[in-house]
What we know:
Rossmann fold; globular
Amino acid sequence: MDNILSIVNPIYSTGKGTASMLAVRGDKDAVELMKQINTEENRQKQESSSSAMPKTLANSFCIGQQARYEIYNALAARFGKSNIVDLPCGYTPRGMSVTAQGKHYFGLDLPIVINEMAGAAAKVMTPRQSNLAVYQGVDATNYESLRNALNDVEGEICIITEGLIPYFNDPELISMCSAVHRLLSEFGGCWITADHSVVGIYSETYRALYGGNENEMLSLTKQSASDIAGVKLCQNSMCANGHGAAESFLNDQGFTVERHSISDYLPDLNGVDTDKLRDAYRSMEAWIMTVNTVNHNRSDSKDEKPFSVSIEIESEKMTAILSGRLDTITAPELLEKFESVKEGVTTCTINAKDLEYVSSAGLRVMLMMYKALNGNLKMEQVNSVVREILEVTGFEQFLL
């Protein structure tokens, strides 16, 4: 099953790089955690990647990653509540840090990440820390998925999104904003992110420390992440059009934005002229967001159909009938069923009458099916919501 999950969600592999860079920078929790999750295959991949990159760039990546991680920790310490919701948690040691402070930690990520991370974290946490930590697989765009993961929450929450938003298209971003708004309306608390500044952190780190062309780092960062995840980076309304446009977008989604310079939250880093980094980061912002019900359209609270997929085969023709949300959690089920019956099938029709939403993971599965059938796959009875997603992503050109 993990093989299916990795195919559907290749973005998960970026998380191990994050944890390994923290370990390189001497984070003790990251070092212990990587002993549990860093297989020989992963170690060889990381060494190969590092050896192919100039040392100044590799060092900038590690320092930029450490800076980003520590800035989020400082923001959570100042603005966070007793419940820290880390979305996505990746393979970072934040759970160790948060629970050491006596706070409850909810590490949420793709199921393939949680399958490995939950056991690894348990091995390095004390019993007291383990009692304060919950790791659960979710889809970040799905309110029900997130809400189920927070069943044990008592009190206000602080949702942290580090490294997630740049990978979203606009429909995914809007769906996640809707889910976060519902959660904060229910529990109270805030949402913290600096994801709109994430690429700039790496490029400015390079410029500040080495005086080089930061555009080289900017291009490398975007290309590396895009290649691994299989999506174009920073193409949505929070990342592509500047801070003013992003804040306007968030206001429309029902959030009040409090803006902070990330340089104010950067602690001293070992072996680095941190003052140079603070100067370089001065123009980049982290945002603390709370709900603004006045501006928000409450239509997002409607009940959704549970996901289901049924497949009918007549002669060499397949019909796949989908209902509910085709997303990170459910897309593997569609791929698994297709793989089990595709032998001898030459064409496929996807009946989307009751399909309510499609994420990048769902689109990736349909693209796999399309290629496996040499282009003989079409969708029918597509509603306006799903049609808009297909149009935004360009999939309407070959699926409709």
